[in-house]
Amino acid sequence: MGMTPDDGPLVLAGREYRSRLIVGTGKYPDFQTMHTALVESGAEIVTVALRRVDLSSRGPGSFFASLPAGMTILPNTAGCYTADDAIRTCRLAAELGLGPMVKLEVIGDTKTLFPDVAGLLEAAKVLVKEGFIVLPYTNDDPVTARRLEDAGCAAVMPLAAPIGSGLGIRNPHNIALILEQANIPVLVDAGVGTASDAAVVMELGCDGVLMNTAIAGAKEPVVMARAMRLAVEAGRLAFLAGRIPRKAYANASSPIRDLIE
Known about the structure:
By secondary structure, the protein is of the alpha/beta class.
């Protein structure tokens, strides 16, 4: 029996995580379903949209009380359409003790929710100088990814498809190009629809995947959370194992030579 390939943890800014799945908290029908799904996902990092939760409520039954104990909270700037808004939101996260690691979003279009690349780079540079650990949500452009890395971001998070679309990885070639050049973790963020999408992301060699709608919007969110956990693990193992090359024609599993006559 072959040995399981040796795989180290996901490392973000010096901190180690066993799970390579990062999950969100929006769109769940209720806090109990959210809590159970987050536990079932096995994720250790949960991202929270600061502009969409009640930051003042921390008592029993509140949003924050419903998060599983021990999870790293990754505040995000969802809903920010300018660099200034995103910077202010990150500073608020720091004041609330939720930093210094942040998921940076600067949205440029209301229909597609694609990022405003210029605003994203501007905000990233400011936040890195202020000591934040910046994980930027970006498009799947290798040039932008390189500029974000040069700006000091701790990881780069290219989209697979528009946020919440469930379309899966639309341009695996671009993701592969980003992986080829990156010296920081590459975490695919947005567009995953089902378990096979998550597996494809990991088989490409991505360091992790972030998702929210694919789990929260499923008919059975808790069941989908488990499916995603297993898919991420399977995809990572397949990447480490090394797939066979694609061939145009058949290649018999049993060799033709040395047949018994």
